[in-house]
Amino acid sequence: MRLLLTLAFLLLFGCGGRDDGREVLKFWAMGREGEVVAELIPEFERLNPGIRVELQQIPWSAAHEKLLTAFAGNVTPDIAQLGSSWVPELVAMGALEPVDTLAAASPSVRAPDYFAGIWGGNVIGGRTWGVPWYADTRLLFYRSDLLRAAGFDEVPGDWAGWLRAMRAIKRNGAARDYAIFLPINEYEPLLALALQQPEPLLRAGGRYGNFRSPGFVRASNFYLSLFDQGLAPRATNTQISNIHDEFAKGHFAFIITGPWNIGEFKRRMPAERQDDWMTAPLPGPTGLGLSIAGGSSLGVFARSEHKAAAWKLVEYLSRPAVQLHFFELTGDLPPRRSAWAAPLLADDRYAQAFRAQLERTEAPPAVPEWERIGQQMRIVSERAVAGQITPAQFRATLDSDTDAMLEKRRWKLAREAAR
Amino acid sequence: MSRYSPAGWAFAAPAMIMLGLFFFVPVLLAFALSLTDFDLYALANMDDLRFIGFGNYAELLRTPLFWKALGNTFYFVIVGVPLSIALSLGAAMLLNGVASKLVGLFRTALFAPVVTTLVAVAVIWRYLLHTRYGMLNYGLDNLGIDPVDWLGDPNWAMPAIILFAVWKNFGYNMVILLAGLQTIPNDLYEAARIDGANGWQQFLHVTLPGLGPMLLLVSILTMAGYFQLFAEPYVMTQGGPVESTVSVLYFMYEQGFKWWNLGFASAVAFILFVIMFAITAVQYRFAQSRGVA
Question: Is the minimum CB–CB distance between B152 and chain A shorter than 8 Å?
């Protein structure tokens, strides 16, 4: 009995040992950001002595399902880093708290300071559900020396010029070299080209796929033609074992990729090639084009009992100075213009194209099914690239697959309309 | 006297209750779930749950990725199970045949992979299988064979997974078969030798029949285990490259926990159950006809 009492005592104190009267804020952050943000928290706790942040680091590969499981089990955190594509899903489940009123009253989080496309990815049904933490988009990394040798001083801003440049590079190169590498197991390059079109990817309020629209026909034909003309290899990114090495050897002159590769290229391109690569905004059909709005946001959960404290953390992490420090630590690009004015970013020549591109981004359709539709786009486009199906069949298949995935959404919207 | 004695029921009750509570009820609930379209919307609001009968099953049979996953799983089972049992049997016979003080050491060493943590050894195997720095390719290179991109090439990823799984699991069957070998009386071998049987004939007519029930047990257990291929692709390849290592269970996991289509995922589980049940029944019938079960 005495032992039992002692045990109970220990348990009580074991749990309560860290309870120092401060408000405990549960914060989930993913992958590298989760590791790095730990360095920013002590300063926040110093500024807010009443709050203790309990940081939970979650690997990216498990993050999405952990959030869903947490919701199902009623143990969501107070605040979490949210991949941009998860926001529509969590909103559909009612897991998030809208932040419009908080943001409107906030002296530090000012919506107009954010890149419109990046902020827009968090607005669903007229309300804002998250505050962008860092921005991500895709654009061109290119070999400036190969482009010059082909007779171009810079990357042309439209598809026609870009195509001419790629053909010239292909002519200049060896027989087994290509102009551009578009990994056929990634759907982002095609998605970026498709977002540049006037027609939305889904029609009738996200009820049906819109992949036979003139815009998607243009984008997919342009994309597929790059393979047919021999400008891009029909290869996955697992078949190209070292993309930096192949890029340095000039096996291809263009890659469509994201900001994390600035650091990677600086590190992994050989020293004698360091002056031969650059970044450029993505060309569009008739001039500089849109690209994908991505990145992560900070979201406050509807079931949280510490929403005010959670918002304080959002405000702190959104400060331009904190965002710059975060950029230094991770290489993640700040989502607000004022942070970009600092010399650290303004003087980075590789970052300038991203600065320009971030002004021209658009988020993929804000439906919970989007991630699956994107995966389907990858699977079906792979077959079209391989020539197993024609471009027309590709678009028809994608439309019917998408329509099937959106069936539940249509049913739900119809039922809500009937009420 | 009644055939249904209360005492008998009383003794069986605890086990029955446990089995009912933790097996039959969940299985029935899962089956009920597989008849609905439980998904993200239903998770948020149970009003959005629809009863769709066998819609999930019909949908499943129309899903190309499910057929691919089924094909991958059969590939893994058809190559992996015989390979694993042959290796176990070979190792068991070697351990049984030699009288050396080192037998104990080898028995432990060969059994060791079974008790290691899969995730931890998967890390080591990823190094072994690495295209450029891997020991496997280093060995192939010495034989003059070009390096193989084990986990990146769609044609090689499944063989790599099979190799890993067989290495990880063969020790368990080895121990069972070793115990079986030790129960075969030496007189039988002696008699066979006197009759002029050579080594192969002894194996075929003494060892194999002697091991009959053991082999049946081992093959049922191994097959049931191998059909549930999941952890290996989950930690080594995430189903890639090009879906070449997506198993039925991995497909179910993705549907259930990545997309949260729990109704659909439950249907996958029941189809897998039916397949495994059918195959085990066939195995059992076969063994019965040969008089070993």
Answer: yes
Say yes or no for a CB contact (<8 Å) between A368 and B40: yes
DSSP letters spanning B4-62: S-HHHHHHHHHHHHHHIIIIIHHHHHHHHHHTB---HHHHH-GGG--B-TTHHHHHHHT
Beta-carbon contacts of residue A72 (< 8 Å; ≥ 6 apart): B43
Nearest alpha-carbon partner for B126 in B84, B163, B79, B87: B163
CA–CA separation, A377 vs A395, rounded Å?
A: 9
Q: Are A23 and A75 in contact (CB under 8 A)?
A: no
**Cβ–Cβ gap B40/A65 under 8 Å:** no
Residue pair A134/A295 in contact by the 8 Å Cβ criterion: yes
Q: What domains, with CATH codes, occur in chain B?
A: 58-289 (1.10.3720.10)
Going along chain A from its start, the domains and CATH numbers come out as: 20-137+293-347 (3.40.190.10), 139-292+366-418 (3.40.190.10)
Tell me which amino acid residue A398 is.
L
Q: What is the pLDDT of residues A265-322, one digit of tens each?
A: 988 888 888 899 999 999 999 999 999 999 999 999 999 999 999 999 999 999 999 9
Contacts of A368 in chain B (CB under 8 A): 40-41
**B241:A238 CB<8 A:** yes
Best of B33, B37, B41 to disrupt the A interface (most A CBs within 10 Å) is B41
Residue A201 scores a pLDDT above 80: yes
Contact predicate A347/A164, CB 8 Å? no
Q: Which of B37, B44, B241 is closest, CB to CB, to A94? A: B44
Test A408 with B132 for CB contact under 8 angstroms. Answer: no
| Whether the predicted interface score ipTM is above 0.85 | no
